């Protein structure tokens, strides 16, 4: 989708270029070689150079210096956040720890307080920003203080996908926080309540296996048909050749926490509920993912 087709889209240049580091990228400790995973190597390919973007909103302005001190004793201690990818003598990609200069990874933005869509436009520009320097650990934190709206400050995390996936990133960020009343304690993570498994008769077990077998056949047939004969219907969200190089507009939406908790308690899980909301929104837009979603059901 081109930027001209999106009214009100105003993209601007943002400061994503890394400064010349004052610290040389050399191994700090002799450690055992850790090879890069196949997925990590894939995300390092030119056509698959993929980054994770995460936006954190804060009720109060962000104290940058305090955040730097916190990251030095938490986030930076994680070996992936203090390592770079190099090739060994055999040509294999491995992780090598380096000395980290925290100032190279924290970017303070000059916020336009009069623009209510500043954060959205900033993240939009960040999504198509140049790649990070591979001679340093590939992560950045962008601090936006003075933003308008419900939050007084935003922190945008930009992490290369080779360092991990979104779930591990959220777990790591949560581990960097502490309780407000007990600064030395980690926050409590709620544990999902396990539902009692319904006892099924032998007949229902056999019926379930037959249903699984039939659904598998249908899924394989639909997948094969889509790959060979069928194609997605024309839709406003259907991409075209070269669409990955065009600018995109990212929009945020606020959800009431009380509503999310109500749905979570009903379905016993937040992730599934959010997936259903997103899937339903895509269905309303054009139904372009109907066949794909139908296949995933099996």
From TrEMBL:
Catalytic activity, reaction form: an acyl-CoA + a 1,2-diacyl-sn-glycerol = a triacyl-sn-glycerol + CoA
One GO cellular component term: plasma membrane
Transmembrane segments: 203-230, 270-294
Broad EC category: transferase
MF annotations from Gene Ontology: diacylglycerol O-acyltransferase activity
Classification via Pfam families: WS_DGAT_cat (PF03007)
Domain O-acyltransferase WSD1-like N-terminal, residue spans: 88-221
Keywords assigned by UniProt, alphabetized: Acyltransferase, Membrane, Transferase, Transmembrane, Transmembrane helix
Gene Ontology biological process: triglyceride biosynthetic process
Pathway: Glycerolipid metabolism; triacylglycerol biosynthesis; Lipid metabolism
The keyword Transmembrane helix is annotated on this UniProt entry: yes
Protein name stated in the entry: diacylglycerol O-acyltransferase
Naturally occurring in which organism (per UniProt): Ceratodon purpureus
Lineage: Eukaryota, Viridiplantae, Streptophyta, Embryophyta, Bryophyta
